[in-house]
Amino acid sequence: MAFVDLHLHSRFSDGTYGPEELAAQARRQELAAIALTDHDSVEGCPGTAQACAAAGIEFVTGTELTAERDGNELHILGYCVDIENGRLLTEIARFQAVRQNRIREMVARLNQLGVPLPVEAVFALANCRAPGRPHVARALVEAGFCASFDEAFERFLKKNRPAWVPKFKMSAEEALELVHQAGGVAVLAHPGLNRTDEVIPGLAEAGLDAIECFHTKHSTAAAEHYLQMADRFHLLVTGGSDCHGLNKGKPLIGTVKVPYQHLERLKARAAEIRTAAGPHAGRG
Ligand code: AMP
Ligand code: FE
Ligand code: FE
Ligand code: ZN
To answer: Fewest CB atoms within 10 Å of the CB: 61, 132, 236, 259?
Structure first.
């Protein structure tokens, strides 16, 4: 049976692997296809597509948009999106600017707390358009202010800790619409992590295409629960490891085995979305 991993991060957000390493790891895991889902970014897609083509692995474009609904943070995955879609790129650039400004605010707070971490150290380490808290955590460790990545989060960066700054997010409906107009399918990421089952009926109504049933942090029982939810709300099923490379201990790529048939259905839905939107869908 062929398997896919549809949730991977790279150095273009808070993962550590570059395109070649991702493709090489996917090959080692004997995956038939992978999708790149960097936070608020599609910057790594062209390079990863090329590396996957060279390694004989199917590549699916993707992104993981940070959204919210009723004050809860939700992650909306967009698959098969046209990565040259004008509106998608404009909105992503807007949210990347939000991320960069938030890094400045978090570092300013650290400085006020007596931790003289230079903001340039974080941007140099991140070296991408979508920096996040994991980059601040790594910079704190590298500069010797924290003993570990986890300590950086526990002391400073976790929600409601002294250097934490809330992030402006798009609404979940905006995220769904943005993905659809870029010719992609919209998926609710790891619902078991956010424990936000109550949003699923409303999102299904708003056009959600699928839920991520298989995920590293979903138990077998949780996966079963979300498979039932998918069935009940007529949603497709996706899954992936949410691998961040070496950022959080061991690399997870390939550890969540998703049968290829789920990707087949996802691609069919994307084709329907593009057909329904007319010949110019996914361009513009
Ligand atoms: P941001 O998008 O800047 O808010 O950062 C969120 C990312 O930080 C998540 O995708 C995780 O990769 C990571 N993260 C969030 N909370 C923690 C935590 N308590 N410990 C370690 N990593 C975390
Ligand atoms: Fe992440
Ligand atoms: Fe996520
Ligand atoms: Zn993720």
So the answer is: 259
For 121, the enclosing helix (H) or strand (E) is helix 119-126
* Beta carbon of 64 within 6 Å of any ligand 1 atom: no
DSSP string over 14-65: T----HHHHHHHHHHTT-SEEEE--BT--TTHHHHHHHHHHHT-EEE-EEEE
The whole model's pTM is what?
0.95
**Residue 142 tokens, joined:** 């590298």
Which of 63, 133, 135, 212 for mutating ligand 1's site (highest number of atoms within 8 Å of CB)? Answer: 133
CA nearest ligand 1 atom 3, residue: 132
Beta bridge partners of 88: none
Element (H, E) at 3: strand 3-8
pLDDT in tens, 193-229: 987 899 999 999 999 999 999 999 999 999 999 999 9
Q: Distance (Å, rounded) from C-alpha 232 to C-alpha 48?
A: 35
251 close to ligand 1 (CB < 6 Angstrom): no
Which of the 8 DSSP states describes residue 153? I
Distance 133 CA to ligand 2 centre (A): 9
Give me the half-sphere count of Cα atoms (radius 13 Å) on the Cβ side of residue 200. 26
* Amino acid letter, 234: H
Ligand 1 centroid to Cα of residue 136, in Å, is: 10
Atom of ligand 1 nearest to the CA of 132: 3
* Position in ligand 1 atom list of the atom nearest CA 158: 19
